[in-house]
Amino acid sequence: MLELAVFLCGAVVMVLELTGSRVLAPYLGTSIVVWTSLIGVVLGSLSLGYWWGGRLADKRPEPRLLSRIILLAAVATLLMAGLKGLILTYLQNRANLHLATLISTVALFAPASVLLGMVSPFAVRLRMENTAQSGRTAGNLYALSTVGSIAGTFAAGFWLTAVLGTTNLLLCMAGVLVVASACVHRGDLPAKFAALALIALGTAALGLYDAHLRADVGLYDIDTPYQRVLVYNTLDKQSGERMRVLSTGPEGVQSGMFPARPEALAVAYTRFYRLAAHFRPDARRALMLGGGGYSFPKYVAANPQEFGGGMRMDVVEIDPGITAIARQHFELGELPGITLHHDDARRFLNRAKTGEKYQLALVDVFSSHLSVPFHLTTRETLAALSESLDADGVVLVNCISAAEGPRSAFYKALLATYRAVFPQVESFLVLTPDDPTDFQNILIAAFKSPAAPLLTSAQPDLATMLATRYVPPAALGGPPALTDDFAPVDHYLLGL
User: Fold this and answer.
1) Which fold has domain 268-494?
2) pTM score of the predicted model
3) pLDDT digit string (tens) for 168-202?
């Protein structure tokens, strides 16, 4: 039974580490800084646990003591589930990203990781019967722990996270550790039953709290196969109208809808995609990379007259969970002329460049300013995108950055990349056109034709959007074009 405990503890270590990214994402994002802190803290904690567990095992090689250590790890995991929201909410805006991620990962993940790190060396000492087989004993138990870690990695990554959700998965792991504790030593039954009772109480309390949030602000905390998503109700800052939003990162929202007007474009940058009809009024076939709440596809389907009487559109969204959320919470129904594809945008482009050409491409694949899939920003991706367009094809891409100043590196790099592929590129500052140093949505419009695009319109709303045109300084400077080999977008966005 000791071997089973070692296997289970190894599995829990990796489940907690993978779940850690989901725990941190809504508050701190999923940038390289977050992953660095998470991996570094867990590895450091395990190392401390190995050292401490070995020393303690030499002094007191007792199964009962190891059982209590695992039981403490169960309690630490339970506390992680209960306190994560409080700790992360407090730290989110009270420290810079580096310090906030480091403190939060230490506070949440270090205690359980240290205790779980103690298990393998302690188990080796308990199984050590003679020095002639000490190497084999240690190798077998560490291999078993690693096999458990592999099983936990695949189970959490492919199945458990999406099925159970972040909080429930942490609670389940606490229960698994109680079982592992019992495998090592069957005594201390009152303590084990007390731990199980605490887990049951925590599950009930957190379930009631979630129900309260859903009733109060319509908050849904949803884990998909690819990410953690928050859906909640709020008020539009400009109009005061009731709004339902979808968020996958710590700043801003990635999709929004007015429940009273579900086909309207509720988020400012999505309204700028209407420039597609201005730049290509003859477009009959469009590609959209990134579905989110499917705001613009719904708008296109509801307003066919704006797009020449109707337009066929392929929408590529990697996460089927996002589509399910859009159907449940954002009134996504069947859209005439619009086809949904669940695929990675880069893979889709590699196939689409040899098929029927598009006239328009709309790119909205950046989950938040801290969650940018770098492989969709590179010159190689844009070359494939260009090949999928006809000779006069137009690309509209949502970029989250500043245009000037210390937080402008990502915009400058992305602009340089589009200029390396497309002969004409324009920029429009969505939120604060008078302040290019403000961190905001920037719409980049790229044109496959070398002819100058029309930058005026008789329609007042489109003319207002076109008036936000930003002309970068002649000596722009900044990073080089992004490539598959060199695309440090996380560093650019974080100012590293």
Assistant:
1) Rossmann fold (3.40.50)
2) 0.84
3) 999 999 999 999 999 998 888 888 898 899 899 88
- From the list 414, 483, 405, the residue with the least C-alpha distance to 443 is 414
CA distances from 282 to 20, 306, 307, 359, 466 (A): 48, 11, 8, 8, 19
Look up residue 417 and give its two tokens: 């990349």
Q: Could you tell me the maximum CA-CA distance found in the chain, to the nearest angstrom?
A: 89
Instruction: Let me know: does 42 contact 33? Beta carbons within 8 Å.
Output: no
Q: Which residues of the chain are in CATH 3.40.50.150 domains?
A: 268-494
Render pLDDT for 123-168 as a digit per residue (tens, 0 to 9). 988 887 666 677 888 888 889 899 999 999 999 888 888 888 888 9
Nearest to 352 by CA among 399, 391, 384: 384
Neighbours of 102 (CB within 10 A): 19
CA distance 439 to 399: 10
Residue 231 β-bridge partners? 220, 246
**CA 46, CA 55: separation in Å to the nearest integer?**
14
- In angstroms, the CA 146 to CA 280 distance is 56
Tokens coding 16: 């907690």
Q: What's the distance, CA 237 to chain centroid?
A: 25
Report the candidate in 107, 116, 111 with the shortest Cα–Cα distance to residue 85: 107
pLDDT tens-digit series, residues 408-418? 999 999 999 99
For the beta carbon of residue 322, count every other beta carbon within 10 angstroms. Answer: 29
Collapse the DSSP code of 301 into the 3-class scheme (helix H, G, I; strand E, B; otherwise coil) and give the result. helix
What are the pLDDT digits (tens) for 325-382?
999 999 999 888 899 999 999 999 988 777 789 999 999 987 655 667 888 999 999 9
- Degrees, nearest 5: CA angle 326-327-331: 85
| Structure token digits, residue 167 | 């909080």
Q: Which ranges in the chain are annotated with CATH 1.20.1250?
A: 2-217
Query: CA quadruple 158, 163, 168, 174: dihedral positive or negative?
Result: negative
Provide the pairing of β-strand 440-447 with 389-401.
Answer: antiparallel
Confidence check: pLDDT of 280 > 90: yes
* DSSP state, residue 133: G
The Cα 368–Cα 387 span in angstroms is: 27
Query: By the 8 A CB rule, do 224 and 162 touch?
Result: yes
How many CA within 13 A on the CB side of residue 75? 12
Q: Which CATH class is domain 2-217?
A: mainly alpha
